[in-house]
Amino acid sequence: QSALTQPASVSGSPGQSITISCTGTSSDVGGYNYVSWYQHHPGKAPKFMIYEVSNRPSGVSNRFSGSKSGNTASLTISGLQAEDEADYYCTSYTSSNTLAFGGGTKLTVL
Amino acid sequence: QVTLRESGPALVKPTQTLTLTCTFSGFSLSTSGMCVSWIRQPPGKALEWLARIDWDDDKYYSTSLKTRLTISKDTSKNQVVLTMTNMDPVDTATYYCARYNWGSRYFDYWGQGTLVTVSS
User: Fold this and answer.
1) Which tens digits make up the pLDDT trace of A38-76?
2) Is the pLDDT of residue B103 over 90?
């Protein structure tokens, strides 16, 4: 069982927006602004999309945004595109100076 | 340009010890703030963090696997080695190494991963 809880799957049509949640505890998500999100296409290396809850590295589309409220972080993808179809994982720094991963969410673009 | 590459056996037998090597370039693990982690993904399952080693040789392990894991580094060779003892078929997974940005607590560069199958 993963330390952080994500929905197993979400879906949306091209152009729509979707949000993926990531729920932890006060010892991880709620206690630190060190939540990051990764996009993972099968067979490829994961790619980081968001760090420190809402920061986007250079080169990542501004269609990707992150936020946090209490023990739940969220990744929102607006203007869905076919290429966004992938698995998405959240991670959070923890009070043990370790990393917790979410269980992953499969995004399907209809 | 930062790159990481995992290497090790594709097949190990149950009860054996797995040794994986992460060879990297573009940064030095002797530089303050540099860290390397190992992460794995069993087929059809989620990513799982395993271990991390920092520039100052501090080491951190997954609580559930810490009795089986050892992480070490060879700064002169730009390598990080992970050993996992008493391998079991449930340890079949793609194993990734990744550079960990200590300042912002995220993995900024990943290797392509190496598939390890545990079978007799």
Assistant:
1) 999 988 899 999 999 999 999 999 999 999 999 999 999
2) no
Task: Please state, as a whole number, how many other Cβ atoms lie within 10 Å of the Cβ of residue A102.
Answer: 28
> Whole-angstrom Cα distance, residue A88 to residue A62?
16
Q: How many CB atoms are closer than 10 A to CB B85?
A: 13
CB atoms within 10 A of CB A68: 19
Name the residue of chain B whose CA is nearest to A37's CA: B106
Identity of residue B107? F
Q: Give me the residues of A, 34-73, that contact B with CB < 8 A.
A: 34, 36, 38, 40, 44-48, 51-52, 55, 57
* Greatest Cα-to-Cα distance within chain B, rounded to the nearest angstrom: 43
Residue closest to A80 by CA, chosen among A1, A29, A19: A19
Residue A36 to residue B107, Cβ atoms within 8 A = yes
pLDDT tens per residue, range A22-42: 999 999 999 999 999 999 998
Question: Within an 8 Å CB–CB cutoff, is residue A88 touching chain B?
Answer: no
Distance CA(B61)–CA(B49), nearest Å, equals: 8
